[in-house]
Amino acid sequence: MATLTAGDKAPDFTAKDQNGNTVSLSDFKGKTVILYFYPKDDTPGCTAEACDFRDNYQSLLGKGFEVIGVSTDDEKSHKKFITKHNLPFPLIADTDHSVVEAYGVWAEKNMYGKKYMGTVRTTFIIDPEGNIKNVIDKVDTKASSQQVLDLL
């Protein structure tokens, strides 16, 4: 699994969002995209991160950003998460792990001594030409949108 860094071409993907609509990264060409990967819908850290992006969404849009969340949860789980927390941006259902693997964020994790494969919380900022501008691998779930803005 390759580690993507600033300057690399962002891997294009095509996957379903919470409504079953097909979404591709190339749909956002010409826009700056905040593509954030998170482990699981409706868990404390993932909820804090999603709600931080929600609370700052209009400000991010005003600065020219689009926000897209990605996890390996299915469309139904995403729909429930969006409805419960009033999230205004799409969540990609990467149930086959193709997107997390393309971005190098599917890795072995360790919790309470148990090893398992999972999504490593990571945020990619992708420029209008489709290149990775920044990678945030130490995400502050309560201030993730501010981390993005601090880089710019």
UniProtKB/TrEMBL annotation:
Monomer. It holds the Pfam family AhpC-TSA. The active site is at residue 46. PROSITE patterns: THIOREDOXIN_2 (PS51352). Keywords: Antioxidant, Disulfide bond, Oxidoreductase, Peroxidase, Redox-active center. It comes from Mucilaginibacter corticis. The keyword Metal-binding does not apply. SUPFAM superfamilies: Thioredoxin-like. This is thioredoxin-dependent peroxiredoxin. Thiol-specific peroxidase that catalyzes the reduction of hydrogen peroxide and organic hydroperoxides to water and alcohols, respectively. Plays a role in cell protection against oxidative stress by detoxifying peroxides and as sensor of hydrogen peroxide-mediated signaling events.
